[in-house]
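ARCHIVE RECORD
Type: protein–small molecule complex
Small molecule: PBG
Source of inputs: curated submission
Record status: active
Notes field left blank by submitter.
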Amino acid sequence: MSFPEIRLRRLRRSAALRGLVRETRLHVSDLVMPVFVAHEPLRNDRLPALGRHTVGGVLEEAEALLGVGVSAMLLFGVPDEKDAEGSGAWADDGVVQATLRALRSRFPELVLLTDVCLCSYTTHGHCGVIDDGEVANDPTLELLSRAAVSHAEAGADAVCPSDMMDGRVRAIRKSLDDAGFDGTAIVAYSAKYASAFYGPFREAADSTPEFGDRATYQMDPANVREALRECELDLAEGADVLMVKPALPYLDVIRAVRERFDAPLAAYSVSGEYAMVKAAAAAGFLDEQRAAVEGLTAIRRAGADIVISYWAKEAAGWL
Ligand code: PBG
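STRUCTURE (tokenized, with ligand):
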């Protein structure tokens, strides 16, 4: 049978009917809100979710998030001082560590994820230590592990390595276990691309590389089979959750990872994706709310379980 007996429009006739046959749902419990923490607050009027909070400000943000049903936060630290190794990343009194301690005691129900990387903490802005002008893989692993353990000590539920060094998941897993944190999960930024869409983030996190770019460690945007190899290795090294990042330009990668692996999958809808829609909406070209929900739903439809988004707090009110 075909048209005219078959008419797909029959199931689109009312909002309730469309709701019954909807294949993908976006729920607040899928969302993670990225939050930047610094010693000084910094408003961002055009991209509000990319402002910086003090520890006190994050406490307020946590209350607001829980109030609308978002129960997970991904913390990024913006330190006052940087050095060549990025030692602020594992400072016991660093902003992220202090924030974790403050949140952990007050909001036991909040899921606390932390970004583990060196780029905001190094003077040169790269995600690893520099040796002879290059980002050195193996010496970086020890430093990332220190950062991860310090986050676990301060109360993180999961650490999220975003550096793209080879072998970081194994190194971090071993360090966490040796330090007694076998219950701390690793959400690995497994397929993280060398993307132009990180622009607004680098301003918020003050993490723009001083020389060169990140193409020797982050992935080439043209590759998808390589993303599957990254995911396979991360799982073998002990990752609990895989991640694809950015999200919207990489829906095919999300789908491919979903089909190949059974592990939970996160997708990070990055700062440039948020900025594009904000800018287009400000110019009157499209409706922000509809565009945002459509994009986030598409990320779920492609196969992501967890969606990290700068709209998490606002979207909770739209769903
Ligand atoms: C740190 C890191 C970056 C992002 C998350 N963790 C920036 C980068 O790799 O340059 C980007 C997030 C975003 O753009 O929203 N390595």
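CURATOR ANNOTATION: The pocket of PBG is lined by residues 115, 117, 119, 127, 162, 198, 201-202, 207, 214, 270-271 (CB under 6 Å).
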